[in-house]
Structures are given as C-alpha cells and as structure tokens.
Amino acid sequence: MFDLLVYYGVASETFLPELPQELWRAGKLELAHGVQQALQVIRIATACLGRFLAEIESRGAKDLYGHGSTASWLAEIAGLSRGEASAVVKRAIALNPTRALDGTEVPPLAPATAAVAALGLVGDERIDQILEILKNLPAEISAEERAGAEQILANLAPNAGPRQLAKAEANLQDLLNPDGNEPKDPEPKEPCREITLERRKDGFWKLTGLLDDETGARTAAALEAHAQPRPVDEFGQADLRMKCERMGDAWADLLDLAIACPDQPGTSGYRTLVHVTIGLDELKSGLGTACLDFVGTMTAREARLAACDCLMVPVVMGSSGEPLDMGRLRRFVTPGQRRALNIRDGGCAFPGCHRKPKNCHAHHIEHWADGGPTDLRNLTLLCGFHHRLIHHGDWEVRMAADGLPEFIPPQYRDPLRQPRRNTLHHA
Predict the structure, then answer these.
(1) Highest mean pLDDT (candidates 281-285, 286-290, 349-353)
(2) Enclosing H/E stretch for 28
(3) Distance between CA atoms of 295 and 141, rounded to whole angstroms?
(4) C-alpha count within 13 angstroms, C-beta hemisphere, residue 17
(5) What's the CA gap between 189 and 332, in Å, rounded?
(6) Beta strand pairing call for 311-317 and 273-276
(7) Mean pLDDT score, 177-190
C-alpha cells in the first residue's frame, strides 16, 4: 500500500516515523517528533484515500461494485456508519477533480486546500472549516475572488486553529462584501417540541421531552414560578421538598390551571373526568379502584379527592366486567359558585397557606360520595397539597357558624384541637 502511495506522488519514505524498540526509553523530543510524523502520514494517506474515492465517484460505484453510492460502498468495506462515510466522500469530492457523465473534468471546489492536505499539513477538521467558509462567501463574487479567498485560507490553515480561521472568515466577509447582506426578515423556524408519556408497570408515569429554546425557557419560567418553597407555617414547619419534587408539584399545578380553562376541549373547564367503575358503597368506604378516563387505575380514596371538583360519570359494572348502566354526567361547582368561593376564601383556606385561588380546588367538606351537597356552605378552596392532606391526613375541616371554614388540627399537633383559620388572604 505504501508503494501505491509513492506511485501516486502523495507520500515518501521520509515521512515514516522511526519507532524505537521500546517507547519508554524515548525522550520527550522523540515522542513529539513521532506524533508529528505519524499525524503527517495519516493525513497524507487520507488525502490519497480521497483521490481514490473521487475516482470511484467519477466512474460510478454502482457500475464498479453494485452499490447505489460511493458512501454506501465505503461504509461497508470500512465498517463505518452511512453518515461517517458520507462525510469522507463529500470531503474527497470537494478536494479532488471528478468527471461528469460526458467525461469532461469537474474541477475541485478547493484545489489550494487539497494541495496543502496532500502534504499532510492539515487535518479533516480544518478542511471542513475551510469548506464551510467557502460556502458562506457571498454568491455574487467572481471566481478569481473566490479562488483568492481559498488560497488565503489554505496558506493560513497549517499553522492556524479554528479561531484564527474564523477571524480570517470575518475579514474576508468584510473585504468581499463591505455593505453586508441585504436585510430581510428571516424565515420563522418550525418549532421542535417532543413529549413522550409512558405508563410504567409500577403505576407511575415517565415523562420525557425535547423543547426548542423558546418553549423551554417559557416552561422553565412557569415551573419556577409555581415551584417556590412554601413559607414556614404557623407551626414553624418549613418546606422540606427537594427541588425536583417541587418542580413535579408545580407541573401538577400547571395541569390544573390548563384543564380548568373554559376553552379546554372535552372538560368544559373542570379538572378531571372520572369514570367510576365501582359501586357507590365502595366509593364511600374508600375501598376499591376507579378508572381515570380509561388510561389507568386509581384508588377509591383518590377518586374521592378528584370528585370534589370534576365531572363524575358513575358506571355500574356487571360480574363479567361489562357496563350495565352509565350514569348521567353530574356537574360540580358551577362557575358562579367558584367565583363566590374565590371571593370568600381568597385562596387556600388552610391556616398559613399563601396559595391563590387559581392554584386551588373546590373541596366538599362533606364528601359528595357521602351525600354532601354542592353549595357554598359545604365548599372551601384548598391547594393541591392541603387538599390531599385533608383527604389522607388527620386534619379536619368544618364550616363555622359565621359561614367560614375552619380547620381542626390532629391531637399530636394540638392536644386541645383548637379550630384554626387562614387570616393571610383577608388581613
């Protein structure tokens, strides 16, 4: 193979590094020279490879080897991916002459760069940078100006790094196009947004996605606004959630806001559409399961929580699992009632909570599943955290004689269980 390189005039035996028998005996100067010589041999061999590939491209890889393209043939024999092989072939065609279908020669795009590459003085990275610079030159310049610009870059490349070539590009642009490009409105880019939602076997959902810069910034701003730590409550308890947990709760808050929008398709401005696939007795006792929009199961206790502020469709199931009766859609908390709740409670009614009405659910003090009515004397606003606490914790809520909600702490928090109210929203 080396003889073949010499035959084509792109290599010489003087380029071959002399390897000492034991490299550990070599001095630092010997090591440095060995690296430089090896790099030069690799670059010369790469230049020779480009000449072969350009010739194969001219004759046609399909006729020679039965492959549809030179890149696919190179990928097979070199063990490369199609993308890697395409980059090598593209570089070879840019640096070497090829022939058109009628046999006429097609000159290379960068002959001066090819001459420097044949001497092993530049590698693929600088070659690709030069080709990219040439592509970005003004289209209206003459062939002589383009050739002159390429000669400047080729002379600079052996001793320059990427920054020096980038600076040379800026100088060439100023020289060849002093007035700059004609201003025009850029074409808007198609946004790149991907979301994947997958339900795992353990019942959790895995959310992954890819957002463009603008959407990502908006998402981060929205999540940060809702992920602030909760203030220290009147009992001196701080928010101990990690940031990732606060971001997850913020995501749930944003979903509540979006689903509660009156223009939300399919929900008419209510948080959730729950199809209860158990009897009302099970729903009242909190035992059993329910189906949430036919995308998974939830416990009956979770169904009781969701039923506070949603659209509920009871479904009576037969012994074989077939639906026997589909209940009518029941509407909870009318828009007028919600506005009245917002004015009365001013936000989450739990003592010490700062959350605003938009972040709250309408909670039935006497649960709807237990026969509780949907009127103001049986409703109060609770944020997602305190709504879950009331349903699953030891706190209790009741309506006082003056028509305002008050909360009774568990005995381990207050042995006397004195009722408490939130005074932050109407202070």
Answers:
(1) 349-353
(2) helix 28-59
(3) 62
(4) 18
(5) 43
(6) parallel
(7) 62
Query: Residue 34: is it exposed, middle or buried by C-beta count within 10 angstroms (0-12/13-18/19+)?
Result: middle
CA-to-CA separations, 39 to 44, 87, 154, in angstroms, rounded:
9, 20, 18
Structure-block tokens of residue 24: 């550990």
Q: b/e string for 17-31 if b means 16 or more Cβ within 10 A?
A: eeeeeeeeeeeeeee
Tell me the pTM. Answer: 0.43
How far, CA to CA in Å, does 42 sit from each of 46, 160, 172, 372, 413? 6, 19, 31, 82, 76
Q: Specify the DSSP class assigned to residue 33.
A: H
The pLDDT assigned to 327 comes to 43
pLDDT at 322 over 80: no
Rounded (5°) CA angle 161-165-167: 120
Residue for token pair 């390897």? 19
Q: What is the pLDDT of residues 8-32, one digit of tens each?
A: 444 444 455 565 567 888 888 988 9
